[in-house]
Structure formats: C-alpha cells, structure tokens
Amino acid sequence: MLLESLAGLLPVAPWQLAVIGLGVAAAYVIFGMAGFGTALVAGPVLAHFVPVATIVPLLALLDFFAAATNIARDRHAADRAELRRLVPLMAAGSLAGAAALLWGRPEALLWALGFFAVGYALYSLSGYKPMGRLTPRAAVPFGFIGGIFSALFGSGGFLYAIYLAGRLPDKDRIRVTQSTLIGLSTLTRAVLFLLAGVYAQASLLLLAAALAPAMVIGTALGRRITLALSREQFLRVVNLVVLCSGAALLWRQAMA
After folding, report:
1. Beta carbons within 8 Å of 229's beta carbon, 6+ residues apart
2. Which terminus of the chain is more solvent-facing, meaning fewer CB atoms within 10 Å of its CB: N or C?
3. Degrees (nearest 5) of the Cα angle 232, 233, 237?
4. Which residues cross the membrane (predicted)?
5. What Cα–Cα distance (Å) separates residue 209 from each residue in 17, 96, 201, 204, 248?
C-alpha cells in the first residue's frame, strides 16, 4: 500500500521511469569516466517525460551525490593545488554569472561557448599539434569563465576539464579533481534550489530517489572503464564529450 502511494506521487509512469533510468545510467557512465557531461545525455531523455523546469534541480541533486561518491572513494587523488587555484575563481565566476542572469541577456554567449568547445575538441582530437602543458595562470580564465557558465547554464564543466587535462599528467587526478569541482558547483546550485523551495516538491525528490540506483550503477561502471584506459584514451573520451557538449549548445541555440 505504501509503495503504491509513493508510486502515485511520481511524475512519470513505470515504463517512462524505466526509459529515463536507462538514459540516466548512460549519462553517469560518462560522468564516471570524465567527471561531467550528464546533462548532454540525461537532459534530452528527461525532457520527453518531465517538465523542463524539473531537469536542472533533479540533475543538480544526482550530480552532487555522484561527485560525492567519486570523492569519497578516490579523494586522495584530487589535486589540492589546482583546487586552491580554481575554487575561488569558480566562485567569483558564479557570482558574475548570477548577476548576468539577473541583469543581462546571456543567451548570446552560448554561441561563443559552443564554437569554442567544438573548435578545441576537433583540434585536440586531430592530433595535428599536441597541446603543451598549460601554465597555472590559465586557471584564471578557465576557472572564472567556467564559473560564469556553470551559474548561467550549468554547462561550465568542460572548461574545467580542458584546463585540468592541460595541467595534470595522471588521468585519475584529472577525473577526481574534476568531480570535486562539479560537486562544489552542484552543491551551490542545490542549496539555491533548496532555499527557493524547489525541493519542497515531493514528486521531484521521489524521482531523484528512484533514479539514484541508475546513477550509482552508471558512475561505478564509468569509473571501472576509466581505470582500464590509458591517459591518451581517457583524454580522447574527454574531448569527445567536450565536442558533443559544444555541438549540443550550438544545436540548442539554432533551434531556439
């Protein structure tokens, strides 16, 4: 009886939940491998079954707990020096992004972001000229601009990934440091949604709980795949996700 009552509060039918669960599991395989990119896969699937306004707070919850799982398991691999550089810049960028969201017209910036992501990914995947190691000063634009776009659109994760891939030699340090940044970013958004009363909706929280097993399974599978990859293979995966993220942004703008 209790299970039937809870199922009645879910905003989707059981068969829809199964389809969404498969999409979420696939999205978190990517997250487990690259540390970002869930919206790229899960967003379009969710958009077919739940209101668009539900997707961002739902993925903020799932992303936070996925990142927390990665951090708890591999926290020793996070690069604290890079976190000390990036976190303050990310926070400042988030404040600037929030201000732009309130007083500006930030949608036009998505074109620039999309073209940059696609161009960078194609350049990196071509192997034409391997990128040299970035200097610590590169944290300023990547951290600040990543914070801006994380606050505006929830899409700044790949900028952190580009920076970390150009700084760190070890794929596990890249993945866990990236997960830590995404965890902090999504925690901020989740707190804002909480204060705004978004999580007072029982249906949203139940849907998050119902999708949590798919998130856990996908994240664990992505981590296992990453452990079997070389650094070059790992960076190729990251660049493919960056390419798809940029293409998705451009498609979104073209269809708007």
Report:
1. 33, 171, 237
2. N
3. 115
4. 12-33, 45-65, 86-103, 109-128, 140-163, 190-222, 234-251
5. 12, 32, 13, 9, 27
Following DSSP, what letter does each residue of 84-122 receive, concatenated? HHHHHHHHHHHHHHHHHHHHS-GGGHHHHHHHHHHHHHH
d(CA 91, CA 191): 14
Domain boundaries, the chain: 2-255
Residues in Cβ contact with 111 at an 8 Å cutoff, skipping those fewer than 6 apart: 250, 253
Q: Write the pLDDT tens digit of every residue in 42-82.
A: 887 887 888 867 887 888 889 888 888 877 777 788 899 99
For the record, the structure tokens of 168 come out as 């760190």
User: 215 phi and psi, to 5 degrees?
Assistant: -65, -45
d(C-alpha 151, C-alpha 159), whole Å: 13
For 87-135, write each residue's pLDDT tens digit: 999 988 888 876 766 566 556 666 776 777 787 778 777 765 545 678 8
Instruction: Please give the Cα distance from 71 to 178 (Å, whole number).
Output: 10
Q: Is 155:249 a contact under the CB 8 Å cutoff?
A: yes
User: What gap in Å lies between CA 97 and CA 102, rounded to an integer?
Assistant: 9
Query: 């969404």: which residue's tokens?
Result: 20
Q: Is the pTM of this model over 0.90?
A: no
Q: What is the DSSP letter of 230?
A: -
Rounded to whole angstroms, how far apart are CA atoms 98 and 147? 10
